[in-house]
């Protein structure tokens, strides 16, 4: 598992005092606000101190202690910001998308393997697992009726397949 997780991308500057507009790749602004330290790299070597964050539509306006001018903020455009997973608090039973990708999906009753998670999508109602097997993609809704168990430690997601989900044409 990766120690440092992507939280968003700096897409623009905001104002003259060094604030930046962050495209959020996490659930919401409240999740972002729990962090004091953000990182400019996936190894956690380039630290930035988060001093303020406020919502703006689907993005966030972020103030970083180390950035005090529009010229400094301009240099960050296009950069990905990371957080240390040890600094995060997530609800019981929730998982990071990063941890789901690569998991094997198997039938909870027969242990038949359906493929591996190659992406997690969301179109509003629920997250959807994109399962790939031999070049074929199957979309599986992450709902209680289908998902039986998620074990990211052993990279296995056990499901009870819905009728027609894996039936051959």
Summarize the structure.
Helix content is 8%, strand content 46%. It has 169 residues and is mainly β. The radius of gyration is 19 Å and the shape is elongated.
Structure description:
- The chain is mainly β and 169 residues long.
- It is 8% helix and 46% strand.
- A hairpin with a 2-residue loop joins β4 (47-56) and β5 (59-64).
- The protein has three helices and twelve strands.
- The chain has helices at 29-33, 70-74, 97-100; strands at residues 4-14, 19-24, 37-39, 47-56, 59-64, 80-84, 104-107, 113-122, 127-133, 136-141, 147-151, 156-159.
- The two termini are 37 Å apart.
- The model has no long low-confidence stretch (mean pLDDT 92).
- It is elongated, with a radius of gyration of 19 Å.
- The longest helix is centred in the N-terminal third of the chain and has 5 residues, at 29-33.
List the helices and strands and how they pair.
Blueprint: E1 4-14, E2 19-24, H1 29-33, E3 37-39, E4 47-56, E5 59-64, H2 70-74, E6 80-84, H3 97-100, E7 104-107, E8 113-122, E9 127-133, E10 136-141, E11 147-151, E12 156-159
Parallel strand pairs: 7-12
Antiparallel strand pairs: 1-2, 1-6, 2-5, 3-4, 4-5, 7-8, 8-9, 9-10, 11-12
Shape verdict: elongated
- Detail the poorly predicted runs: none
What Rg, in angstroms, do the CA atoms define? 19 Å
CA-to-CA gap between the ends?
A: 37 Å
Q: Mean pLDDT, nearest integer?
A: 92
Helix tally equals: 3
Strand content: over 45%
Output the strand order for the largest sheet: 3-4-5-2-1-6
Order of helices and strands: EEHEEEHEHEEEEEE
Q: Percent of residues in helical segments? A: under 10%
Derived structural class: mainly beta
Largest sheet: 6 strands, antiparallel
Beta-strand segment tally: 12
